[in-house]
Amino acid sequence: MEVLRLVTPTHPAVSPLLAGLRHEYMQLYGPEVAIELDRYSIFEFLPPAGAFIVLEIDGVTVAGGALRRLESGVGEIKRMWTAPAHRGRGYSRRILAALEAAAARRGYHTLRLETGDVMDAAIALYRSAGYEPIESYGRLWGADPRCRSFEKRLDGAYDLTTDELDRREILVRKMLEHHPLDAGVRQAA
Q1: Tens of pLDDT along 36-46?
Q2: Strand, coil or helix: what is 165?
Q3: Using one digit for the tens of pLDDT, what is the confidence trace for 54-95?
Q4: Distance CA 117, CA 122 (A)
Q5: Average pLDDT over residues 5-21
Q6: Is CATH 3.40.630.30 the right assignment for the domain spanning 2-168?
Q7: Among 53, 93, 57, 49, residue whose Cα is nearest residue 73
Q8: For residue 70, how many C-alpha atoms fall within 13 Å in the half-sphere facing its CB?
Q9: At what angle do helices 91-105 and 164-176 cross, to 10 degrees?
Q10: Residue 41's Cα: distance from chain center in Å?
Q11: Residue 158 neighbours by CB under 8 Å, 6+ apart
């Protein structure tokens, strides 16, 4: 059974996604790009500004992606990945659509993303989903000539009412309210 789940970045269902991404980045681009996975705080991918969504089949993570705030009104798609054995079945498109809907509910009017120049399937997905090429914007990977950056203006056609993922998001937020790391971030702010 296929299930889309909103999870925390430290949830066990995220581990296969991050391991798969790290492996591909190492093979295709080397360690200087693979370190991008360690660049952001897990808090950037948590509600209310972020989201981490995985697609599971019978409890096994086969695809996923994340959303983080880039700047006011602008979100960034990160961590898009599908297990090699499950590619070509539309799972990345489902994840991307779920992240776009989450971005609209969070008030983002624009989404940006980066991918690599040899990631032909990813580039085709993003272009077919309405993302347009833009100048590189990232501070680390964006300066690499192998980086390809894209942007999409959200048209406001997304349903802004809560859905099943939002209900889970509220539960995740409530669970994190009492987490010691969350308390430390709020005190530092």
Answers
A1: 888 889 999 99
A2: helix
A3: 999 999 999 999 999 999 999 999 999 999 999 999 999 999
A4: 10
A5: 94
A6: yes
A7: 49
A8: 20
A9: 70
A10: 13
A11: 100, 101, 104, 105
Tell me the HSE value of 128 on the side-chain side, using a 13 A CA sphere: 11
What are the helix (H) ranges across the chain? Answer: 15-29, 31-34, 91-105, 120-128, 164-176, 180-188
Token pair in block for residue 112? 């940006």
Q: Which residues contact 103 (CB under 8 A, 6 or more apart)?
A: 67, 75, 111, 154
- Token digits for 186? 């709020």
Joined together, the tokens standing for residue 105 give 């509910």
Phi, psi of 136 (to 5 degrees): -60, 140
Nearest CA to 79 out of 98, 52, 111 is that of: 52
pTM exceeds 0.85, yes or no: no
Q: What is the DSSP string of 125-147?
A: HHHHTT-EEE----SSGGGSTTE
Is pLDDT at 184 greater than 80 in this prediction?
Answer: no
pLDDT at 188: 39
Q: Give the pair of three-digit tokens for residue 3.
A: 């299930």
For the four alpha carbons of 95, 96, 100 and 106, in that order, the dihedral sign comes to positive
Query: For the chain, which residues make up each domain, given as ranges?
Result: 2-168
